[in-house]
Write a structure and sequence with these properties.
Blueprint: E1 2-7, H1 10-21, E2 29-33, H2 40-50, E3 65-68, E4 74-78, H3 82-85, H4 92-95, E5 100-104, E6 118-126, E7 129-136, H5 141-148
Parallel strand pairs: 2-5, 2-6, 4-5
Antiparallel strand pairs: 1-7, 3-4, 6-7
Helix pairs in contact: 1-2
The structure holds adenosine-5'-diphosphate (ADP) and magnesium ion (MG).
Adenosine-5'-diphosphate binds at residues 7, 9-10, 12-13, 34, 36-42, 104, 128, 130.
Amino acid sequence: MKIDIRLNSEKDTEKLANIIANEVFPGMIIGLSGDLGSGKTTFTKYLAKSMGIKDNLNSPTFTILKTYEGKLNLYHMDVYRLEDIGYDYELDDFIYGEGVAVIEWYPYIKTMLPNQILSLTFSFVDEFTRDVSIEGSDQYEEIIQKISH
Ligand SMILES: Nc1ncnc2c1ncn2[C@@H]1O[C@H](COP(=O)(O)OP(=O)(O)O)[C@@H](O)[C@H]1O
Ligand SMILES: [Mg+2]
């Protein structure tokens, strides 16, 4: 199932993150793609907030992976620079972990990921507007249905 949504403001992005935060489960994988500035990190910030994570989430570009502790941990990755840093990264610990993995630029490591992911592709429309395409394997069907309502 695939749906396309328009986010007319950050408030809409926050609402989307909120719906998803209500459905998180251990081992969930959310793959984000879209150009720089399209809203991947902003979405993740609101997701963390809605998951009750107290720490401020920031862009992990220079650290690849950052763990935010909460009732469910959030593993935030940005693999944009993985090529520079090298491929020698232990992904299994968090991808099959106890928490929720959110991976910015996930297509870069698609071959290393399970097929069971929820993918969000952001695109820039204008200053405050973004489009997002949401697609997922069977196990994410229900979440996508909730988002579309
Ligand atoms: N509807 C929206 N959703 C998300 N971000 C938005 C929206 N409108 C404007 N923005 C702004 O766009 C920028 C997105 O940056 P960021 O989330 O860091 O993008 P990315 O991680 O994809 O590079 C932020 O400055 C944010 O405030
Ligand atoms: Mg980012």
